Amino acid sequence: MPNFSLELQNIGKRYGEVVALADINLQVKEGDFFFLLGPSGCGKTTLLKIISGLEAPTRGRVIINGKNETELHANKRNTATVFQEWALFPHMNVYDNIAFGMKMHKFPAQKIKTKVAELLELIHMGGYHKRMAYELSGGQQQRVAIARSLAIEPDILLLDEPLSNLDLSLRQNMRIELIRLHEQIGKTFIYVTHDQTEAMTMGDNLVVMQKGKIEQVGSPKEIYKNPVNDYVATFIGETNEIPGTISELSPEPILETPSGIKLKVDIRDNSLKKGSKAVAIVRPEHTKVIKSDDAIDNRFDVIVDNVAYFGPSLRLFCHSANDNTPFFVDVFTETEMAITAVAGSRIKVGLEKQYALCYGIN
Amino acid sequence: MRSATESIKMSYPEGFSMGTITSFKKNYKYLLPAIPMLLFLIIFFVYPSVIMVKYSFNKSLLYGEIENTFTFENYINFFTDPFYLKVVWRSFVLGFWVTAITIPFGYVLAYAMWTSKGLKRKLLYFCILLPLFTNLVIRLYGWRILLSPMGPINGILKNLGFTDSGFSMIYTKPAVVIGLVSECAPYYVLILFSVLTLVNPRYIDAAYDLGAGKIKTFFQIIWPLSLPGVVSGGMLTFIWSFGAFATPTILGKPIHWTPAIHAERQILSIRDWPFGTAIGMSLVVIVLVILFIQSRLTPKVHSQRT
Amino acid sequence: MSNNKPPAIKILRHFDWHRLTFNFFLTVVLFILLVPILIVVLSSFSGKEHLSWPFTDLTFRWYFEVLNRPLWVKTFINSLITASLTTVISLLVATPAAYALSKHKGKGEAGFISSFITWPIMMPPVIIGIALLIFLSRIGLRGSYFAIAIGHTLWAAPLVFITMVAVFERFNPIYIMAAKDLGANDIQAFMKVTIPMVKSGIISAMFLAFVISTQEFIIALFLHSPSTITLPVELYTAIRDELSPGISAISVYMIGIVAAGLFVIDRVIGIENIGFSGKG
Predict the structure, then answer these.
(1) Structural domain boundaries of chain A?
(2) Which end of chain B is more exposed for a tag (fewer CB within 10 A), N or C?
(3) pLDDT in tens, C100-131
(4) CB distance B7–A14 less than 8 Å?
């Protein structure tokens, strides 16, 4: 049996009549870089506060390292949070900020000193201990906030959208920095974000949340390849959505669009029957611009509206030739196709059926 | 799949019913730090007020002795004596004049503060707060110097040849009224200003944009929105003038005395505590009635900023 | 605008009557507010023993002369003692209350308690004076510095409370969360994080309480004894008998305390943040 550093059992949270979290069950392996991913208002930050002990769940249990700590307050739990606003104490310098938690935990003075020096080295900020919080740049404040949390040697480090206040290039550097820190320290990190790129590129495992519920748990690859429903599929990565009706289930499932195109699809939702409304989810990289004689499961005509240049690739924003369903395709810049595709031109796109993931619509 | 609300409504795991009781306790635990303040008010404000009420129903004997009985005599004496009824009536009239003057003049100052920015606003703030915090006695002393027969106003009037002997301005009703206006105006202005700051200035722009003139904009947009401030500030002015103590004693004659002064006389000079407290309580009751009427009349303050 | 009107009418049209009326009202109200104070300041420089217009033989001598009047020095010291007591008591009782209630403004009982705390400001001071006089006479405290300070605290503490509620509301609770998350308990978080971060607000509240107490005289009139008489109470009796530059000089010292207090508050939290009226 693997060691879980965190287990959540039937966690529920209500504010008056409002349900923030409903029946959350989750296990996080020791040493995992684990992501809670979802749009704002999905309850991910509330869940993080429940893990840290800053909020109490209405029901359910929080088990940290095998011990039930549901009743413990934040100051008694061995978790530490890096807040979105970093919350460095403005009246203290860097040293006192990092030392604060250790003083509260009554670490010996000598240990505090060496530990702060160690942490400042770890975040590449040796020599900054006298600076006040407001004298630091955003990225530096961010790193001090992480060091302050790591100082109390938490079993789990909780990060609440820590990079959302940084500009793009700094954010990318900090992502790499965080991956490095995680590898060096080897503790469990739980990271809340609404940015699926962060979750996909940094996480070992992630959960996708919506409206206080968990939609799917898994590694980024699993979730990307096998999303359990259209919500997860559209939230992770970019997708085209083709709505229609199931006109055939066997031998080969077929989705018929309102304009009459018949798509061979891969049914991902067992509840789908003949005649059900459904949607096919297609990732741009899985569609190909084809010549008419290529062998492929599905093919249909689209008209190019707009061409966007992304460096190595072009994105063609199109609409279906039969109706106005929007559709976009990525093609490599250095291909024949890329040169001929201009706004207004009519092109043929092809799609293998295993890439047309079909889900029911409620 | 159950919906979220359904799964919450299912039976809770063991121990939840106890949880509701602890959460009830937790709801009030946050009030603990307020206890010293509340105790202080109960010991030094509520309890003394209760004793005061009790005294007002006692009977006074000669030489400041007090008989511990329950009688309405003091109140009956106060409310049936034509002398005291006249005192109450005159104080009402006084309050009316002070309020009628303070409302328009104070409005102009509050409006000037609202529309100013930066240093000018700070300066106007200072012009209100300096008199507000400066000892009332000192300000009344200033008025005494100004209004006295030998004072600057008479001096200037004499120089200009309006009068030879000087006007006697002090110890008159206008002197009391103007003294009270200068006492109450800072509070009125601050209350009105705080309501004005809730009015979204974009409304004015919108009104101009729609072609309304300055005067129209003011009376159709700003005045109605600031009315709650005018009413509560005006009420405060009225109540304070009605219950005024220092200004009528220093700038007026005994004929201008308010119930508050008579209460103080009874207590500190005549030493008839039951009657003095009864006058005081009557004052409080009248004030409370006015406040109650105001709370019924005043439109609620809404913030128009979002 | 049509150009064929005679110039005189044009000027009249462009002449802003609204602005003129407005500025006239503004001048009158500022006059009513400030002139009493200005005249006191001016008269303190008058060289004559008794005040009469015009003030001539201008001199600074009263400012030094009054320092040699033992009665006034004594009342001044009494005022400082009561003001210090008032400041300490007000801050100790009102700050924790403001802290507790600032975070629960929406709740019913919190709203009620907040308005209860501000009730004493609504009461005419004469009533507070009478009520406290009766109560403190009973327990034998009447006439002490402590008695006057209690009376002043009934005025100052609600204002400190309103100011501190505004200060705590602006304080981001994330810092307390961070402190607790790092292992601090409620008291440690309050002492090591909240208090240092709202220090400037507390300093302003201190000045507020101090200034209010040095200027109040009605409650003090009821509660003082000959040995604890405060300066404003002594002024209240003195100004009815005499108008003299000496009294003016003493008054200017008092005005100076207020102006200095306002200056400090402005430096620390900004003059517009003093908790008054419905704003808090």
Answers:
(1) 4-231, 238-360
(2) C
(3) 888 776 667 788 888 888 888 878 888 899 89
(4) no
